[in-house]
Amino acid sequence: MHVPDGFIDTPVSAATGVVAVAAVAISLRGARRELDERTAPLAGLVAAFIFAVQMLNFPVAAGTSGHLLGGALAAILVGPFTGVLCVSVVLLMQGVLFADGGLTALGTNITDMAIVTTVVAYAIFRGLVKVLPRSRASITVASFAAAVVSVPAAAVAFTTIYWLGGTTDVPIGKVATAMVGVHVLIGIGEAAITAATVGAVVAVRPDLVYGARGLSKPLELRTTPTGAPLVPGEARPAAVTVATPAPAAVVTSPAPAGRSNRPVWIAGLIAALALAGGVSYYASASPDGLEKVAHDKGIDEKAKPHANDDSPLAGYSVKDVGDARLSGGLAGVIGVGATLTVGSGVFIVVRRRRRHTVHPIQGQGA
Amino acid sequence: MGAGHAHRLYRHGHSPVHGMPPHCKIAAVFGFVLVVVSTPREAMWAFGLYAVLLVAVAFRARVPIAFLLRRLVIEVPFVAFAVLLPFVATGPQVHVLGMSLSENGLWGAWNVLAKGTLGVAASVLLAATTELRELLLGLQRLRMPPLLVQIASFMIRYGDVITDEMRRMRIARESRGFQARGVRHWPVLAKSAGALFIRSYERGERVHLAMVSRGYTGTMPVIDDVTATRAQWSHAAVLPVLALAVCLTGWTLR
After folding, report:
1. Distance from CA of B231 to the nearest CA of A (A)
2. What pLDDT does residue B143 have?
3. Mean pLDDT computed over A217-234
4. What residue ranges define each of the domains in chain A, with the CATH number in brackets?
5. ipTM over 0.95 threshold
6. Which of A267, B3, B28, B148 is most open to solvent, judged by the fewest CB atoms within 10 Å of its CB?
7. Average pLDDT over chain B, rounded to whole?
8. Bridge partners of A65?
């Protein structure tokens, strides 16, 4: 996705350059806060890691393979400011040293791939970690969600930049469809790898994962009165035991967490269904922005009917249900159900992988 | 460690271009690319002249044209994209070989191809004639924040180390019979990536401690500061100034 020279016109390139310089300046300040005086070596090594991991090929199917873009991974592992800095440095060096991405397009590339991905990913990650229970599984889920959104977000940012300063009149709808469509797919791969990588690091060194900092409790000194009878079966002679250190403390007993969070899940589900069903009942039936633009400009005259037009949910309404509003609401409810099924399917698969060695059968735990 | 200090694009030599101060070279290349990008795309001859200018620089730097052309392969993905443009762009259509192509799209494709290629060629020339350390020093002379230069230099210095570590992990996996064939093997690769991150981060901590124990206070001492004389600046400015002349002619003849 490295943009070459001449792809975006000069004024917009200059503007994105200003944005990039400002963001890098802010990140330099922020990174000092995140890493204090260790910034240079640590950020440098993380940048080298991002650079190396972009060369790690993940085979998709026969012959094709993908690789990590790393924005979301950097944000979650080392924090948003250091993440922006590391990815920017990687892009800068790729541009100057390997001629990958134009020199005048550096601002565009940094804005698009370093700033948008990292900031979007971190915002989503942070939000989800706040909402989800404090456990390792939710870090993985939040990483997945953050990465899956961050890549299409970069595609949207690119489309916006192209719309502002593209040098060829390709209808913006087409650019958006192609870019976002392709990057949704890439995003799924990126998300799976990012989540697995973050999961692997959290399992070994949770203290290194910036996004999981609130997760591990500080060490506490658990004292028992000397001479008190020990619990039978726990033949531990020491009277003073140090509570489990950070790596073990992360596994904050999943069972109670699951019980206490059931109301949250149920409330969330009801809210989603209510919003989807109720709000789309009242939602405007007029086409949305892009569809409208496409129609006004006559772009969609040539648009092929979508492959799913025959599907029972085509155009966000249920077939054979006469009332437009009712059918819209129904489609919303079904959509939420489908999303939930797919989402919890991913969640369960991830959990099962993790628990495989312990409980091979149990999937629907928390 | 002799080989590790030069990057793959660098080509050792003692030409006048190699000997030029790095910040002059960076500024000249940046100016040149900026001028190329601002040239109207209808002035096809201008791009030919730019190419001639670059060939002259390559000749002066004693960089073989074949070397330059081989390095241009990096822009292949954009060639593919440029080829698509005439088919998707709108506007008046022209018929070539029985295909209906957009006129604007054809111009767009030419624009991206010409400017992109010239930009890549200029960057390749810069990288081929400038050593890593010099390049970073040049960026610092051009007022890039010192912290950013430090981060970049750590990335460059340890990039090979980290890449080698990744290669060793791959060899270790493969010598145990692992072969990544599909999505099912992602968890294994992701665990490697996680291990690579931990190793990189811990190496960073060790590097920092080593630096602190040698008296690091947050800034790197510059021992080989480079300065440029007026003559060197004017020598470097030849490329962008000639390009600017071509560009202005292009705009006036439009």
Report:
1. 25
2. 83
3. 63
4. 10-212 (1.10.1760.20), 254-355 (no CATH)
5. no
6. B3
7. 83
8. A59
Question: Which DSSP helix (H) or strand (E) runs through B15?
Answer: none
What b-and-e string marks burial along A36-60, b requiring 16 or more CB atoms within 10 Å of the CB?
eebbbbbbbbbbbbbbbbeebebbe
Q: Is there a contact between A48 and B124 if contact means CB atoms under 8 Å apart?
A: no
Please, which residues bridge with residue A223 across strands? A240
Are A121 and A146 in contact by the 8 Å Cβ rule? The answer is: yes
For B:4-43, CB contacts with A below 8 A are: 7, 9, 26, 29-30, 33-34, 36-38, 41
Is residue A24 exposed (0-12), middle (13-18) or buried (19+ Cβ within 10 Å)? buried
The length of chain B, given as a count of residues: 254
The DSSP-derived string for A123-149 is HHHHHHHHHS-SSHHHHHHHHHHHHHH
Q: What would the pLDDT profile of A166-185 be if each residue is shown by its tens digit? A: 777 777 888 788 888 888 88
Please tell me the total number of residues recorded for chain A in this structure: 366
pTM: 0.71
In whole angstroms, give the CA distance from residue A115 to residue A18: 13
Mutate to test the interface with B, among A97, A174, A205, A293 (most CBs of B within 10 A): A97
Report the pLDDT averaged over residues A326-341: 65
